[in-house]
What we know:
Two copies of one chain form a homodimer. By secondary structure, the first copy, chain A, is α+β, with helices and mostly antiparallel strands. Helix content of chain A is 27%, strand content 23%. The first copy, chain A, has helices at 18-23, 38-44, 58-71, 77-85, 129-138, 193-205, 239-246, and strands at 2-5, 33-37, 48-49, 87-92, 98-101, 106-108, 122-123, 144-152, 159-167, 172-174, 190-191, 214-218, 226-228. In chain A, β8 and β9 form a beta hairpin. The radius of gyration of chain A is 19 Å and the shape is globular. The model of chain A has no long low-confidence stretch (mean pLDDT 95).
Amino acid sequence: MELFPVPDVPEVREGDDLAALVSERVDLRPDDVVCVASTVVSKAEGRFADLDDFPAGPRARELAARLAELTGDEKDPRFAQAVLEESVDLVMSEPFLLTETRFGHVGVNAGIDRSNVPDHDLLLLPKRPSESAERIRAGVDADRVIVTDTCGRPFRHGQRGVAIGWAGLSASRDWRGEADRDGRELGVTVESVVDELAAAANLVQGEGDGGTPVVVVRGFEWGDHGESDAHFRDIDGDFVRQALREWRYDP
Amino acid sequence: MELFPVPDVPEVREGDDLAALVSERVDLRPDDVVCVASTVVSKAEGRFADLDDFPAGPRARELAARLAELTGDEKDPRFAQAVLEESVDLVMSEPFLLTETRFGHVGVNAGIDRSNVPDHDLLLLPKRPSESAERIRAGVDADRVIVTDTCGRPFRHGQRGVAIGWAGLSASRDWRGEADRDGRELGVTVESVVDELAAAANLVQGEGDGGTPVVVVRGFEWGDHGESDAHFRDIDGDFVRQALREWRYDP
Lengths: 251, 251
Ligand SMILES: Nc1nc2c(ncn2[C@@H]2O[C@H](COP(=O)(O)OP(=O)(O)O)[C@@H](O)[C@H]2O)c(=O)[nH]1
Ligand SMILES: Nc1nc2c(ncn2[C@@H]2O[C@H](COP(=O)(O)OP(=O)(O)O)[C@@H](O)[C@H]2O)c(=O)[nH]1
Ligand SMILES: [Mn+2]
Ligand SMILES: [Mn+2]
Ligand SMILES: [Mn+2]
Ligand SMILES: [Mn+2]
């Protein structure tokens, strides 16, 4: 298995055809997985925004005031408003905003970026990243596309690449029912392949000014395994979300 | 960047020299990252165990009885005892046991495996995986070694490869203070490189009877970035753990 960045990608602008940008720069094969940073998907889809687009309502003003009080930093209530408008559930409001986006992803500040955004204050995540992946897939010679983002997680420090959209492959390899080396049946392993591919791609994409938003994974074989498309947990099956709902931050 | 499995690894037994097993099968380069599944590290270190080794105390009996009641499946109190003995903190006891291991990793059932364990009931995680990584590193021509495991996470379905020990590299790349494409300073990104490498390796290791516990990552460049060795969160900085501590499962 091999990973390489698509070279010489320019600054992506609204309306750009990402599939064409990639296809002009690299000869793709059908079984390649094309991993595209959400940043450039958002740029192509015109998901730029400015703080003035989000006049703060009372809830946003309250959240921002409370966060400012807790962290000692000024917080712009318009940013809190943007986070609320991008979210369907506020998972945690203190000491930072952790929300569920419309497409089911749980992330800090609804995944709104303030880095790598020229001429605007904010870059929102793509509206429906799996549909974005599907559109890119329709225009490239590779059969599999993943839209990635970088985000943090509980229990472990730091952030890592994750998949927020995918097309042409299932989210997970389901190993249940297969045999281990001793012929014993595997009980619980469902492997989140799209997240593992996104994590791998993120090592090559980087987080800064590298200019390498698209990484090709070549030679990844799914193998003869079950498939599952479950990716984002509902609150019903997510005890951590249930616990956070009841929890109150105590500084 | 390229990943390939070390071929023809035999069944690993207690006392085996993993560094020699790998070195005999592949020509390593100094900048390779050798990713070794915790399963075989545990086997080499003799971390096999049997349920009879863990006579259940009252707490384990209570936990097992409660889990059996909740799930409808019989639970062996000796297994609960093994989990308790491998842990320093019970993060969640219902509807499954989520604990912190002695070395700081939070995982279900203290990471104790019942797959790929010949002739014994259980395989415990290595006692100090970073020391295991360091020992392997001392015997191979590669400068970087990661001990991996597979585990689940909140918010997202499925499991993925993570690093539980590492040697010869830092846990994370610290991008803070670097510039984005527009010269704006990056604020929060610390990238968990060892977890991303472990996730990538896990795609090649697999979960079943593939027999590929060791994967070499070739051509990964750290680049000129800051480093951090923080990997497992303390409860003080982990709001999810704090929330779980107070939460009670309500079936
Ligand atoms: N060539 C090019 N690279 C970009 C552009 N926007 C971001 N990048 C690069 O894409 C990679 C990932 O950027 P990041 O902001 O971390 O994206 P995210 O993880 O999707 O939020 C980095 O190497 C950036 O330098 C762009 O418009 N053109
Ligand atoms: N050759 C060989 N492969 C093994 C051995 N034990 C496990 N494996 C393989 O190592 C890979 C990872 O196994 P798994 O049980 O998921 O390990 P874990 O993720 O560390 O818990 C799979 O391909 C297994 O078939 C062994 O003793 N010898
Ligand atoms: Mn982002
Ligand atoms: Mn990123
Ligand atoms: Mn394991
Ligand atoms: Mn595994």
